[in-house]
Recover the amino acids of this structure.
């Protein structure tokens, strides 16, 4: 599945882990985190199961999942990292 983002890549800061990574255009936050060895739960990889939900501490996700309600998406308190990207240049996640 192609994972579109709203810009040519973005930075993800994993606040609790003190790690900062760049997610390239069309990249997947989940894939980047898995490649770094983070044990992120996931199942569908398509935004429909909710397994990969991660808390958002700062920044604006580009929500592309089918799990969160419109109100939950508007609150930007969490996101599905398998399919969602970023509108802001930096996302700070609760990981
Ligand atoms: S893995 Fe299913 S919503 Fe992300």
């Amino acid at each position: 599945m192609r994972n579109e983002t709203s810009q040519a890549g973005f930075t993800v800061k994993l606040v609790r882990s003190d790690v900062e990574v760049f997610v390239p255009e069309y990249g997947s936050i989940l894939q980047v985190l898995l490649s770094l060895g983070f044990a992120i739960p996931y199942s569908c990889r398509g935004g429909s199961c909710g397994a990969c939900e991660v808390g958002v501490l700062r920044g604006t996700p580009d929500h592309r999942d089918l799990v969160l309600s419109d109100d939950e998406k508007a609150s930007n308190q969490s996101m599905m990292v398998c399919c969602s990207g970023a509108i802001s240049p930096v996302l700070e996640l609760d990981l």
The chain has one domain: 10-93. Residues 27 and 88 are 15 Å apart (CA to CA).
